Amino acid sequence: MTTNNTTQNLIKTLSIALLLSAGSAMADVSFDGLELQKRTKADAVWLHPELSLEGYDKIMYENLGVATKPVRRNSRTDFELTVKQREKVSEILDEAFNKELGRSERFELASTPGPDTLAVRVSLLDVVSHVPEESVGRTTTYISSVGEATLVLELRDSVSNAILARAVDTQSADSMGQLIRSSRPINIAETRQTASQWARLLRKRLDEFRK
């Protein structure tokens, strides 16, 4: 099985898991035994009832990939990402999380599993662009949002693969409701800002939890 097929299968499996969770969104316990947390900054957070990060002092970041949201034909607001655009979004995600996790005061970045290593698995689902493809480099277009996506983040034991926590958060890459002029540098900057916000929040929460 190729790496691309493996990634797609992981995303499909994760999507099914999220559908099962959504089906009992108000339940206190998820389908895999995680407890829903109250008053969190992310849209939804589930934690293992006996979660402890004691014994972990390393983090292994894994990008599971980017999955686009199906859009209606002739849509004037939603546009599917091209292969190159998905690759760029994935690259921005890697840059943001590696940079922020590298700033952690409690964990060191690792590249291989180990008994003291926490696996941080990140994927983007339902990614959609709000930038008309024909407008790039041809006409002046003003938009209120570059696009939106749902971040799915899981914390697992890197050796046993046991699930410890899951967070789901949907964000729009925008400029606080203001119209912005669409251009490649601006669109990339908005996407990078959203990815950095997610990564920064994770790093802060991990450091706080590990204290």
Description:
With 211 residues, the chain is of the alpha+beta class. It has a single domain (3-210), classed as Rossmann fold (3-Layer(aba) Sandwich), CATH 3.40.50. It is built from three helices and nine strands; from the N terminus they run H-E-E-E-H-E-E-E-E-E-E-H. The strands form two sheets. It has a seven-stranded mixed beta sheet. Strands 6-9 form a two-stranded antiparallel ribbon. Strand 3 (58-68), helix 2 and strand 4 (108-109) form a beta-alpha-beta unit. Helix 2 packs parallel to helix 3. The longest helix is centred in the last third of the chain and has 27 residues, at 184-210. It is globular. The protein starts with a helix and ends with a helix.
Task: Write a short abstract of this structure.
With 211 residues, the protein is an alpha+beta fold.
- Strand percentage, roughly? 25-35%
Q: How many beta-strand elements?
A: 9
How much is the radius of gyration in Å?
18 Å
Low-pLDDT runs: 9-13
Looking at the structure, what is the overall shape? Answer: globular
Secondary structural class: alpha+beta
CATH topology: Rossmann fold
Number of helices in the DSSP assignment: 3
Strand ordering within the main sheet? 1-2-8-7-5-3-4
- Mean residue pLDDT: 83
> What is the name of the CATH class?
Alpha Beta
Structure keywords:
single chain; 211 residues; alpha+beta; Rossmann fold; 7-stranded mixed beta sheet; globular
